[in-house]
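#lab-general

N.A. 3:47 PM
ok so I finally got the sequence cleaned up, no stray characters, all 304 residues accounted for. can someone with queue access submit it? mine expired

B.Y. 3:52 PM
send it over

N.A. 3:53 PM
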Amino acid sequence: MVSNIEIVLPDTVEKLSAPENLAGLSHQVKGSAPLPSSDALKEMMEIVRGILFPGFFGRQKVRQETLKYRIGVEIENFFRILKKQVIAGLCYEGCNAPTDEIRQRAINISEVIVSKLPELRCILKTDVEAAFNGDPAATSFSEIICCYPVIRTLVNYRLAHELHVLGVPLIPRMITELAHSETGIDIHPAAEIGHHFTIDHGTGVVIGATCIIGNNVKLYQGVTLGALSFPLDENGNPIKGIARHPILEDDVIVYSNATILGRITIGKGSVIGANKWVTESVAPGSKIYKNVKILKGFEDGTGI
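B.Y. 4:20 PM
back already:
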């Protein structure tokens, strides 16, 4: 059989290299400007999980007499990787090479993040408590930290959110997408989530960028906190940057596969039943079920 590869190959290369076929699909390095690395961020998140939960994550065995030293070493490693990736993120938006100003900004941002690690551990501890208290099958905090995907996801989300607040581009979304790939839980880093937050089971949960979630909120698998159709500008393009996702006030429970869409408010203490489609605000204390009798013991979200 005669091969035409000598003709096909250069023709294909020419088509794939044509500027009109690459618009918006190619990132070309300018000068020495780096590109953020998913592999480096993955390594960084494994380090920070080990810092926040020593002995549960990371490669180091933990002993009390060496704990302070090990945490110090790992924070240095975390800072080193974070600084480099923040530089890459800042340069991604258009600079030709890292300038002294960008390097200093990256150092300042990384220092702020390091200083927030104790605060992040405190709020993550409340998330562990919420997962433990909300699941009768859980036997210990250790089981929650080791086995429950929500904790892995929330470590990534809460760190990514702080980077987002500090104005770091691209990297926060990369960090939450690492958790999304790992656990099936998709939380945008711009979302605002209070303390004692948990997601039981977890797979398939989506939390949009402009969501505001209060304290003591519990979601089940498959819940979507999303947007309705985007409003369009005069040119027919979606208008971005507007608040378009739900607000969940304190003590809300949303059961599996419920879909809550638009900039609506689910009032404090409300319960949204499984498979419900909600597009209008719900008053505090409401119970929105799917026309079935709620058995005793399931009203507060602890019966599953």
